[in-house]
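Researcher: Good morning. I'm working through a list of sequences from a screen, and I'd like to move beyond sequence-only analysis. For each chain I'm collecting a predicted structure so we can compare shapes side by side. This is the next one on the list. No need for commentary yet; just the structure.
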Amino acid sequence: MQRFVVPWVVTLALLPVAGLAIVLLRQWRPSRSWRRSVAEVGMVLGTLPWVWMILLPVRVPPGTKLAHWIPLSDAIEQIRDGHTVIQVGGNLGPLFALGFFASLRWPFLKWWHVLLIGAGCSLLLEVLQRVFVAGRVFSVDDILLNALGSGLGRLVLRLIPLRAPGPTR
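Model: Good morning. Structure tokens for this chain:
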């Protein structure tokens, strides 16, 4: 469990670098857009610790099924075993920042665009961890929950008023 703390500590340590990157990106752009710069850096920094943790090897008990192809079978099994927070929360988080900041960067994205981006990124991560990382399990449920997490990121952004209120009449 302690090794999962390191990605978060490194990410926090990178906050000043991220701030500098935002300022430099803004200066470099002809439009001088803060919104785009914050969104691009946010997508990377907000997703980095999750991807790092996903790509760490883990030990699985002998006889563990290493691929779950039937939707919701793995999630139901994990919830039944008392791992609700890990299964659901741990799979909604990884692409939340991607959905949030991608929607900020490209405001024209529809909800289903964000879900498709989340599903594609999640599929890539699942394949990478299954092929290159020892002890990782491929699960369709992880892809579905990661995509849902990116959609929740978009939803949260939509709930935040980003424009200053106009003049009152």
